[in-house]
Amino acid sequence: MKAYSRISLLTALVLVTFLVPQLKAQDWVRTGTNLSNDRIRIAAADVKPVGDDPQTPALKTAFDFTLYSDLANAGIFDLVSKSLAPQAVPGSQQEILLSQWSAAPCNAAMVAFGALSVTKGRLIVYGWLDDARNTESPQVLGKQYNEEASLDMARTIAHRFADEIILRLGGGINGIAETKIYFVSSRSGTKEIWAMDYDGQNQHQITHLGTISMSPRISPDNTRIAFASLGSEGWAIRMYSLEIGRLVSFPAGVAGGLNQSPAWSADGKKIAFSSSRSGNSEIWAADANGTNLRQLTNFAGPDSSPTWNPRTNAQLAWVSGRTGLPQIYTMEEDGANVQRLTDGGYAISPSWSPSGQFLTFSWNRKYGPGAPGGQDIYVMDITTKRWLQLTHDAGSNDFPSWAPDTRHIVFERSIGGRTDLWSMLADGTEQHQLTQTGNNFMPNWSWN
Amino acid sequence: MDILLGGGEQLERGLAPEPVMAPAAGSLLLHGGLAALLLAYGFLGGLFHHSQWGNEAGGGTIQVKLVSSVLPLPSDQPPNDNVLATDMPSQAPAEPAAKEKQAVDTSAIEIAGQQVKPKQQTVARVPQSQVTPQQNNKAQYGEQAGSSIARATQAPTPVTIGHTAIGDADFGSRFGWYVSNMNQAITTNWYHQEVNSSTPKGSRVYLVFTIHRDGTASDMKFAQGSGSPTLDRSCLRALQRVDSFGALPSAYLPSSLNVSYYCEY
After folding, report:
1. Whether residues B202 and B223 fall in one domain
2. Domain range holding B145?
3. Chain A contacts of B173, Cβ < 8 Å?
4. B205 half-sphere exposure, CB direction, 13 A CA radius
5. Which ipTM was obtained for this model?
6. Is the pTM higher than 0.80?
């Protein structure tokens, strides 16, 4: 009996083990840190024009060009040049032959392609992003756009598609293809506030005040621009509403003294600016509607150019001249924990990165008579105070402003008697001139 | 005499034993009282706390926030602290080696009709080249880009990470972009400063966890330690800091995904 019961127990166990239905097999992924840091090799195929509407060729060209330059500007791709890409123009998943794109000389890891058609005044674009090395399930993205048929909308659709690709492949950071840059231009005769797309397209004038306006700062919700303007009562901070197309009141910005360099906090609730109404130029802050004015600094020497920490909205970086030459400092909003970041030279115009970790500013580290030095753009890691010089030997560079993806910086360069706006990657590469006419200053990249 | 003799009372008084008990008791009482007062002051003072240490408004220790400061751009070179030109080897190739002297062929037949001077001496004088030092084909000078700020962005490595599991239909090859997003999320939350700097380079700790359909991670466990407890802990903390990895791709049918992740110092 004992042996029998043991055997039966064993049999029962064996049966139970093998007859229990198998759970659905789950996949394993094995990965880790310190893997390759390469750029993603992506090929942007021309979109296939569908239909015979006469607008199609022009819109297709605008779309192709815009998509290609957006992907090239992103900073994370190794874009396959058009001469290496296959001649094929696939218009759908059935038409694309991935082996063409993943073979030499193209060697693409990803392919972006699509189809464009114009019907009854509507521009319809289908866009796909495929993984060229994965023949089983290549599709990563599939998008459809339907907008009014115009050159502007063709560019906008290309910007949107590029943003989707950058978001998906760039580790979750939004692309900047739909962001705008606000700047000062004197090409109309007086210094007014202008706006343009992030790649320099579509430059248009916003204010028509007929006086000098400087340091525009767009609000985080893209509705208002705060800027400093010379009026009858002196330099005041003014607010321009983009929704209603005229100035709105900002009571805190008008007072005796010099009011300059406004800065929005990332939640859109506070504006810090420098004002000399107390006799000495100090940092003041007010609510976004101009009330609740309060003084934030009370130090010897001039204090100006504040910028908020966009992550905490409770820290400021600003320029202080208490030691003589202007240096960059950070502090909490209540004045505590004042830290000095630059150790010498002439440091101005700080801008806090959207990730909250870096400051970019203009610095002349060897300022002084007889010392060879240029005003260059630097990026500094706030916690470790390590810096990286971005511009070298190319004019006088000032007023840097971060893009919302923490990958791009727009700045002002004075060289050869002209002042223009340039954009570059945050490691100093890919410097592109954005403006060509007039003199252009003090750019500000929008928040999204 | 009387004065002398009259000092008897004084003598008596002088000879009389000093009163010791009363003053001694009094002294004991006094000292005991003082000690008791001191103790009482210490005890009662401790009961009513004054902030004699530190900033009253702050309260608590200073919070130091470790930040993983990384520019989200790819880089070909690791971060370094070189600011000036260095003597690190440059990428340019070295100059080509000097051409050796052409040796004279002694077995060549002399052309008839011409008196050719014997060339044996010249042949013997072809210099015996000593063993030349190993030519390192890189120029021994150069400049290295001073870039002390770290970069991180991950490419969607298509297939071969570690060893391929079940063939090319596994998650890594189908959704390489999801794996790279996951790598990015963990790497940006991994703070190198938490790891003891004496940890040998290249040590790896392997973590195992599960990602659910909504992107949240659970069941984090150590699969293989690295030998450095600080590295192990910092890798686990990095994983815990991630709120969500993003929803699992809809083309992936099972409800969860098992991940084996290593952190390499």
Report:
1. yes
2. 63-87+138-153
3. 134, 136
4. 25
5. 0.73
6. no
